[in-house]
């Protein structure tokens, strides 16, 4: 009854809105009755928050539940809270939950122990980080979900958690390990920097290159101009500065390894527009569910790396040692 005839007035209105110089607040303009945006705003999806906020023009972002392919695990009792404050209350009857304590400072030492104490739901401690383990009705037994969660409070007797990071999402060269949250923080700082030049980071992933000595980390970036979907013309100095910004945010072991030349300069490879769409299509062709897919933040599969490398339009390396500016300032001050 609605779509039985053309509506040229509505078509003209949509065309006028989409032809605007900026798409800021376009969702609100196209759909003025929209009350909220249902989205995932934690973990690797947190990088899309600025893009969503730009498009929605003040419409609240709501992350209503904590779910995975293992099942619905928790709900957000304060859906209108800011994305950075999002926390989830675990629903005890969805699965049997257990927790492996994660000690950020000595995780390697803990992993070498033969016996790891598992904590029940009622015994988790406020402020502590845990790796989630579930036993489900469909047959998973003491299955490690791979998520690291931090206890932030309680609702009645049910603990509330904030998503911290994925346990298995890190880059590694020799003894150095870079966690996903460290990398994401560096990417965020670099995004703010390129934003000054009207550049927008569409998507990214990372990989390790040990074909040369020393090995180094690679970031694959898809960039566009804020007011266009086309690939921009890039100034090498801007992307090289981004390499340095990301390196500055990484852990002390990484920066010490860079200064000791046991890890090479971080590299950013800028790829063509549509590269991450191609990566998704490849993953779906290999059996990934479209509804469950999100961009992997660390690529190890050779076929996926070939897709990314075949679309590279520019390669840029960090031109400075991380920490050098800080060290130089301290030396000058002491003098």
Automatic annotation (TrEMBL):
InterPro entries: GH3, GH3_C, GH3_M. It comes from the Eukaryota. Keywords: Ligase. Residues 197-301 form the GH3 C-terminal domain. Coiled coil: none annotated. GO terms for molecular function: acid-amino acid ligase activity. Residues 88-166 form the GH3 middle domain. Pfam families: GH3, GH3_C, GH3_M. GO terms for cellular component: cytoplasm. Belongs to the IAA-amido conjugating enzyme family. This is Indole-3-acetic acid-amido synthetase GH3.17-like. It comes from Gossypium tomentosum.
